[in-house]
Design a protein that fits this description.
homodimer; DNA-binding; about 240 residues; disordered N terminus; Arc Repressor Mutant, subunit A; Tetracycline Repressor, domain 2
DNA sequence: TTGAAACTGTGTCCGTCGGATACAGAGTAC
DNA sequence: GTACTCTGTATCCGACGGACACAGTTTCAA
């Protein structure tokens, strides 16, 4: 049973303090050999190298030359460790290109977060489910909403746009992570072709689409394509609001 | 260590047979007491009730009045069981509304898949990472691409559109699942308000957006909003292709 | 009719995981 | 110096996924 399900309010409070408050260092007893940042970085390194499943309290502790149980002096449990890892991996939001309009800013924002997801594929499964956002995560959200301030969109819509772009970046990063690294050329089409073989009459439209895509052997532009459609749709709304 | 990481080719082949081939029933030995569909349904029921973490070989077996190890006669491992559960939960794709244009079809498609994700929140974390799509999943993709056939979009773009819509439905369903069920009114804003309190100067744009959203106490329309933007953006492209 | 073969479900065992608890040593404040 | 507090450790536990050997059951072939 995952503690995230049954843990309840106490765990959530612990996580909040861990993410949002810098602990006032106590002045008694031996100095800690580790810091939260150390632990988070060690976890990220392991996850980057061998995936999220390889992030074990045991292994994180070994990479820090400490016993497994020592980690529990810093982190209440594994869920909180992963939360810290996410904050570390996502990092601080990048500065928007100076003097850019809302569209360029959002385009930049989406590409940056897409890049983070691709550099840390484990963060995609790690960020599903009910979660408490950390300061860095909130910082990214701030940048996205700030980009749209003054466009005439409503408050809720600003948040909706951020969620929309984030979902797209996540989805595409996941698709990239799903394609094996040994087929650099036709990522997605190759996997589908095998599945569709002999079943063309069941999936005629997909078959046609895959064949057409393979024939034009265009590079994988799914992220750019979706991003352009989304921004087009937002631009349409901005224009409409401006006129009214 | 998760077998999905290190398992390699043999596991993938097993999973393919499991998802795509109806096994020729052997005629020797005692008749099986279970079917794959039984097991998948039992797993779905447990996941719907208590979450994905509650789906244990032990518990699935108990709910079927069988020993844990009996399940391994049907399913190579837990990863494959979850894959079967996903196929069962997603189900066959719905028939498109007759006589509808591409936009209505895609709108319907997105709402339907959004609904599936919301009815089975566990399927969101279950469908991350490298996966082999099953027949039902491919069926959904078929419907989406079929809706756009004849619009002048390229083959790769049809697939991109499906990925885009799927990502949106996933993202929003996840956000819904993250909001506690005891706050029916202002879902998202309530959680943010607590985090932003006392930090308004750090996140001015988010603060303003959240306050504005809370003031207009509009119902949660994030899914509708994003879907409309996406379809607007696609419509723009379709128009452009039609003219050229 | 009588094995032999094949298949199903069971019981037992193992390694690994997250985590609780008790304890020993280290450092600080009085 | 001594009491207190904090750190890291050692040991233990239950639950998990899974391997393996075995017993019972059904069908096929002689």
């Amino acid at each position: 049973m995952d503690r995230a399900d049954a843990g309840g309010r106490a765990d959530k409070r612990k996580l909040y303090e861990l993410l949002w408050e810098t602990p006032g260092t106590p002045r008694r007893g031996p100095r800690p050999t580790l810091t939260l940042a150390d632990i988070a970085r060690a976890g990220v390194a392991i996850a980057d190298a061998d995936g999220l499943a390889a992030v074990t309290m045991q292994r994180v502790a070994e990479s820090l030359d400490v016993t497994k149980m020592a980690l529990y002096r810093y982190v209440p449990g594994k869920a909180e460790l992963v939360a810290l890892m996410i904050e570390t991996a996502i990092g601080e939001p990048p500065a928007p290109p100076p003097g850019a309009g809302w569209r360029e800013q959002l385009d930049h924002w989406a590409r940056q977060i897409y890049d983070r997801f691709r550099r840390h594929p484990w963060s995609i499964p790690a960020t599903v489910g009910p979660r408490l956002p950390g300061p860095n995560e909130m910082g990214w959200l701030e940048r996205a909403t700030a980009a749209l301030t003054g466009t005439g969109l409503r408050g809720a819509e600003l948040l909706d746009v951020a969620v929309l772009l984030l979902g797209h970046a996540r989805g595409l990063a996941q698709q990239d992570a799903a394609t094996p690294a040994d087929a650099p050329g036709q990522h997605r089409e190759a996997a589908f072709t095998v599945l569709l073989r002999g079943r063309e009459e069941h999936f005629p439209a997909v078959t046609a689409a895959v064949r057409s895509a393979a024939a034009h052997n265009a590079p994988d532009q799914a992220f750019d394509f979706g991003l352009a459609r989304i921004l087009d749709g937002i631009a349409l709304l901005v224009e409409r609001r401006k006129r009214s």
